[in-house]
Amino acid sequence: MNDLLDFSGKVVLVTGSSRGIGAEIIKAFG
């Protein structure tokens, strides 16, 4: 990931993560 989307050492809250775009975001952070 680039520096803009570097969440290393941070807590990220993703809502609606069971399906759709939320699930894909969780996979990306996974």
Task: Name the features.
30 residues; mainly alpha; 1 helix; 0% strand
Shape: elongated
- Encode the helix/strand succession as letters: H
- Whole-number radius of gyration? 10 Å
What share of the residues does DSSP label as strand, in percent? under 5%
Tell me about the largest β-sheet. none
Structural class: mainly alpha
First-last Cα distance: 13 Å
Description:
The protein is mainly alpha-helical. The protein has one domain (1-30). The protein has one helix spanning 21-29.
Quick structural overview:
Helix content is 30%, strand content 0%.
Topology:
Elements: H1 21-29
